[in-house]
Prior knowledge:
By secondary structure, the protein is α/β, with parallel strands linked by helices. It is 35% helix and 20% strand.
Amino acid sequence: MKIDLRTIPDAEVSGIDLMDVDITLPAPEAEPQRQYYFMALLKQQLVPERAKKNGKEFLTACITTFGCQMNARDSEKLEGILETIGYHIVETEDADFVVYNTCTVRENANLRVYGRLGQLGKYKKKNPGMIISLCGCMMQEPSVIEKIKKSYSFVDLIFGTHNIYKFAELIVTCFESERMVIDIWKDTDKIVEDLPTDRKYSFKSGVNIMFGCNNFCSYCIVPYVRGRERSRNPKDIIREIEKLVADGVVEVMLLGQNVNSYGKNLDEPMTFAQLLQEIEKIEGLERIRFMTSHPKDLSDELIEVMAHSKKICKHLHLPVQSGSTDVLKKMNRRYTKEQYLLLVEKIKKAIPDISLTTDIIVGFPGETEEDFQETLDVVRKVRYDSAFTFQYSKRTGTPAAVLEDQISPEVMKDRFDRLLKEVQTISAEVCSVHKGTIQRVLVETKNDHDEHLVTGRMSNNLLVHFPGDASLIGKLVDVELKECHGFYYMGEIVR
Length: 495
């Protein structure tokens, strides 16, 4: 007897065999049942029909991800849906279904996508049955959509950040349409659980705990393309992590644009620190990471929880962006240089072995040499393990884009080079203190350059290379750190 998805509870729908679903019935209105209906329709009928029409035994799909870990996690969901409906995932972009999951944090990211689209157009001429889909942050910009419609009319499907969960339904629409399908939402308050996911790693996984951002830093496009903050129900988060652990995951990375503001919009508010305490109780989970933390929201409660935790990694990414209070005000960061340094002091006192990393922007409009020296002063006082350094990139649609006193490229590059030199010098000194110690390391992969080595990551996020084979991947092992090479160590496993 065929299954009517309209009668299946949310928590059970992911365990249904799609070949048993009755696709002659109307599609359910409720989610995620509705998406599983469309997945069943695709798997049972539409994908096999399309493969036959194209003279193929099966269809292939390739997903290319631009941008942050949030995007990477979204791509795992897209890949999970494509696999579930019968596509074979490949790494080459001459596939039957190609997805670009885009980023728009920097103007350069947009240009990269346009450049790659030209190549896809050539592939499509050779394979007219090919489907090209664009999604992610870049697609939330109206000017981008107009450019694609005008210059890249061979694109088949476009959707944004708010309706990724509708991917299966959109594929059906695309299969049935003779023209470009565009489905862009301005915002959403919807969070759909229990959709398929294809994880990149068997032993670690990202876990979204919230979506969107309310901070509106003046240089940042993210709140406009990701929408307002919405937190997932803690029970759904716990349930997801428990399932991951049962499937062999030992480390999770909790993801959000600003994890420190987690839980504020829940019916029953919960702090991020409280969520961490609940996650820590999950048996079998060895490590907890998270990003990103906004300094203005990092609470004493969180510091205390981190200090006493046996599972939270000794690493905190704390973006400063600038060391100048004047520039921070223009950036709408809502803290001062002094407040940031006081916070760092508090963190280091509570967690002496903490590894601190950061983001820094140079060349923000109006930044003077004195402002830049303030940034260098913060770098010298905090002594970061590493820093992601950026030259300011004007993003159309943000308040900073229209500010006067835009910094010349020459001045910007000079400051960037000086900052990078300072960061690298300090980083090499800070990271070298672990030499000779024995550290717990999660082995992640075979080494890219030497087949006799494996590569793993310490709690403080530093990489370690040491002799070993593929059987160690996914395991936590003790490694003696023999040599420090700036951003990584060479070591030997302790038997």
